[in-house]
Every structure is written in structure tokens, then in C-alpha cells.
Amino acid sequence: FSPGLGACGITNTDADFIAAIDKSLFDSYPGATPNPNNNPVCGKKVTATYQGKSVTVAITDRCGGCEGKYDLDLVRRPSFHGRRESVH
Q1: CA dihedral in degrees (44, 40, 42, 70; nearest 10)?
Q2: Which residue of 45, 61, 68, 76 is surrounded by the most CB atoms within 10 Å?
Q3: Which residue ranges make up each domain of the chain?
């Protein structure tokens, strides 16, 4: 996804290690309110691993185009070759 102002109300650039999580997980995260800026998942760090490489990113957005509940859409993807990956 393209960085900028995300659902969490945080503005990022493509230099940031950030990710968007699937809309269903974002919306149902415990403590989520109608105001996405107040979602407790915002700012949480997750580590994504693919083919033996890992990257830690902060959740700053909601992914409307993700296909699975645990999908991540990564902005900076040096270890993932620009592919959207599902991380469980």
C-alpha cells in the first residue's frame, strides 16, 4: 500500500517499516471503536517472516484489499520482494 495518512491517524513515508492489517481484524480488534484513530492495534509491532527472512513493522493502517484475516500489506518490503504475504 502507499504510505501517507492511514486509518490509525498516523502519517508515514515509504521509509517507515509499517503495515496495514486486514479490515476484518482491524475492525474486530479488542477495544476497537468507531473512530479508527483510537484502535488499540495502532502502533503494535508485528514480525513478519517469509522464506527465512523477517521484518518487524508497526501497524498503522487498515487493508481493504487483503484477502485473509491475518494478511499484512507491507510498505517497505526488502525481504519480501514486493509481494503481499499472509503471516500467521
Answers
A1: 70
A2: 61
A3: 18-78
Long-range contacts of 23-29 (CB under 8 A, 24+ apart): 23/62, 23/63, 23/64, 23/66, 24/69, 25/69, 25/70, 26/62, 26/63, 27/62
Strand-pair category, 71-74 with 18-22: antiparallel
Whole-prediction pTM value? 0.79
pLDDT for the residue numbered 23 = 95
Block residue for cell numbers 491517524? 9
The x, y and z cell numbers of residue 59, run together, are 501497524
Q: Are 63 and 46 in contact (CB under 8 A)?
A: no
